[in-house]
Amino acid sequence: MDQHAALRACLAKTLDWQEAHAGFEKVVEAWPPKLRGTRLEGLPYSAWQLIEHMRLTQHDILEFCRNPISRTAMCMGDGDHEDRDASM
């Protein structure tokens, strides 16, 4: 097994390991739909908005790695995500 194949195998095993992190479906399976967009007192965002923020951030990180042209827009803060309301 070459070095890259070993690294890919290790990464795949780590991502599939459910003891280090919980999958999205497992986290939200008992979450009542009517509470998904609810903001708790004293907090500026609902949990659903935080999840949407993480999804957008993951996309931006992937795009940053795949597309060097997008790096300038991301670093300059084009404001693309700032006004989105992710509550459901």
What order do the helices and strands come in, and which of them pair?
Blueprint: H1 3-16, H2 24-28, H3 47-66, H4 70-76
How would you describe this structure to a colleague?
- The protein has 88 residues and is an all-alpha fold.
- The protein has one domain (22-88).
- The chain has four helices and no strands.
- The radius of gyration is 17 Å and the shape is flat.
- The model has no long low-confidence stretch (mean pLDDT 76).
Question: What would the keywords be for this entry?
Answer:
0% strand
Q: How much strand?
A: under 5%
Helix content, binned percent:
40-55%
Radius of gyration: 17 Å
Would you tell me the structural class of the helices and strands? mainly alpha
The helix/strand order is HHHH
Please describe the biggest sheet, giving its number of strands, its sense, and whether it closes into a barrel. none
Count of extended strands: 0
Shape: flat
Q: How many domains make up the coordinates?
A: 1
Poorly predicted sequence stretches spanning 5 or more consecutive residues: none
Q: What's the rounded overall pLDDT mean?
A: 76
Give me the number of helical elements: 4
In whole angstroms, how far apart are the ends?
46 Å
Quick structural overview:
This protein is an all-alpha fold and 88 residues long.
